[in-house]
Amino acid sequence: MLSEQSSALVEEVVVGRHVVVGKGPVGSAVAQVLVREGHEVVVLSRSGGTSTAQVRHVAVDAADGAALAAATGRADALYNAVNPKDYTRWAREWPPVAAALLRAAEESGAVLAVMGNLYGYGRPDGPMTASTPLAATDAKGRLRARMWRDALAAQEAGRVRGVVEVRASDFVGAVPTPQSHLTRQLATLRRGGRAWVVGDPDALHSWTYVPDVAELLVRVATDASTWGRAWMVPSGDPRSQRQALTDVAAAMGARTPRVSGMPWPVLRAVGLAVPQMGEIVGIRHQWDGDFVLDATETTAVLGLTATPWDEAVRATVAGPAEAPASTTR
């Protein structure tokens, strides 16, 4: 959410050509912010889309460096809003996409603004800030950390004009079911059933409202003083899964939910047949203890604050129940 200070700064932004790669929740929200600010907006995705007077859609494979660079053309900012569909595809799909985005940024002259997450930090020993060391030991966390280091190296070598990453926790808001731990429970909450969650239902957890991600991404992409580092997305006070689901149920007019954690031995067993569930076991540290994001610096320096939790909950309840055919690329 924009503070008065940040709103004033937006008015000073020079209109430019901005290219968003990915049309899932984050990519779509970024495009909306860019349209609001009067920029020329191009959205690149695997399936393309119907262009309007405000946003031009182009079909392109984000893993094809030459095609992505050609579709990007000259640009002031290039946004990485891509996310492989499930964890089992990260190791195969992320490296070529990350390389293609760096190539497109280099050839276009654009700053590369990356939608990041908290995986690179590994198991935290307290609230995570942008300066917390990237110390992940699991494969997904090491992959995300390596992507960021490669981007920084490209900037330091002068290959790209600038790189910047914003880091968010798990999404709330109008997010398709497969991409949110809260929206996938909506049907269960409506019928008054028991909500089974990953990890400890009472461990504190940060939740990030997707429009707040978009506001920060656009802000840092258009402010050269923020480049060359990461920024945390303001995410409000942490809430346990039990607290968050109770708030969602109340907003739906449903009864207070019964919330239970799925035992890790059961998840490991299920993972033998469902690879995605097996991948979740590898990041159990995100759910079996407190997993909290600290964006104090972002608020102090950039004037951005988290959207009130009640508003984020209402958007979550009103959001889409199912993912569109293509949510990431």
Please list the strands of the largest sheet in the order they lie side by side. Answer: 3-2-1-4-5-6-10
- Morphology: globular
Supply the number of helical segments: 12
CATH fold type of the domain at 4-169 and 211-235 = Rossmann fold
Helix content: 25-40%
- Low-confidence stretches are 4-13, 321-328
Instruction: Provide mean pLDDT, rounded.
Output: 92
Which CATH class of the domain at 4-169 and 211-235?
Answer: Alpha Beta
Organism: Pseudokineococcus lusitanus
Domain NAD-dependent epimerase/dehydratase: 22-223
Protein name: Nucleoside-diphosphate-sugar epimerase
Pfam families: Epimerase
Describe this structure in words.
This protein is α/β, with parallel strands linked by helices and 329 residues long. It has a domain at 4-169 and 211-235: Rossmann fold, CATH 3.40.50. Helix content is 39%, strand content 15%. The chain is built from twelve helices and eleven strands. Strands 3-2-1-4-5-6-10 form a seven-stranded parallel sheet, sandwiched between helices. α4 packs parallel to α5 (139-156), α8 (241-252) crosses α12 (309-318) and α9 (264-273) packs antiparallel against α10. The protein is globular, with a radius of gyration of 19 Å.
Present the secondary structure layout:
Layout: H1 4-10, E1 17-21, H2 25-36, E2 40-45, E3 55-59, H3 65-72, E4 77-80, H4 90-108, E5 111-116, H5 139-156, E6 163-167, E7 170-172, H6 186-190, E8 195-198, E9 207-209, H7 210-221, E10 230-232, H8 241-252, E11 259-262, H9 264-273, H10 275-281, H11 296-302, H12 309-318
Parallel strand pairs: 1-2, 1-4, 2-3, 4-5, 5-6, 6-10, 7-9, 8-11
Helix pairs in contact: 2-7, 3-4, 4-5, 8-12, 9-10
